[in-house]
Amino acid sequence: KMAADTSVDILQKVLENEILQSAKVVEEHLDAEIQKLDQMDEDELEHLKQRRLEALKKSQQQKQEWLSKGHGEYREIPSERDFFQEVKESKNVVCHFYRDTTFRCQIMDKHLTALAKKHIETKFLKLNAEKSPFLCERLRIKVIPTLALIKDGKTQDYVVGFTDLGNTDDFTTETLEWRLGCADVINYSGNLMEPPFQSQKYGTSFTKLDKKTIRGKIYDSDSDDD
């Protein structure tokens, strides 16, 4: 029992020592910052303040510009013609090609609505695939839902069905956010090397979803409710 007590005491001392060391490092860092500020003269402090105000002002102006172009909300555009205009005026665009009768499009809508509010640097749109045959053919959209991910007016990537999202209807908004981050179409702050779905029950090996052909359409459907 004495040996066990001694081990506990040693462990406790080691832990206490580590905590003290960490606190010391933080304290030294703070001291250095305070010293740096103390050594600045009034002109330097004023300059620093002005730079921060300028950066804040610029950030606010950018935000206002995005909002004026329809960023910050997920909205439907009525026609193919509108698509070209919308894409031309924004650097980053996510466009959901949907169909009214496809249940999975409603799942996608829910997540895109949340992401549009969070990532105002990107424009989030939806377009009815049945009303845009020219675009569907040009962009080779054959599965519904499909997200076209557009940067600087060029389609860089696609999210086709839910295959990249863990191959499940229950994927999280974070999973879609990660996938858009991989395409660099939003400012993603997480780790791109660690998809959010890896820790979930369906693991990391996906099989492609079965697609059923819709009669007389140029695209297949990723939905079960045709």
Please, could you describe this protein's structure?
Significantly diminishes the chaperonin TCP1 complex ATPase activity, thus negatively impacts protein folding, including that of actin or tubulin. Pfam families: Thioredoxin (PF00085). Forms ternary complexes with the chaperonin TCP1 complex, spanning the cylindrical chaperonin cavity and contacting at least 2 subunits. It is a single chain. With 226 residues, the protein is α/β, with parallel strands linked by helices. It folds into two domains: 22-69; 71-183, Glutaredoxin. The chain has six helices and eight strands. It has helices at 2-39, 42-68, 80-89, 103-118, 133-138, 173-182; strands spanning 74-76, 92-98, 123-128, 143-144, 146-151, 154-160, 212-213, 220-221. The longest helix has 38 residues, at 2-39. The protein is flat, with a radius of gyration of 26 Å.
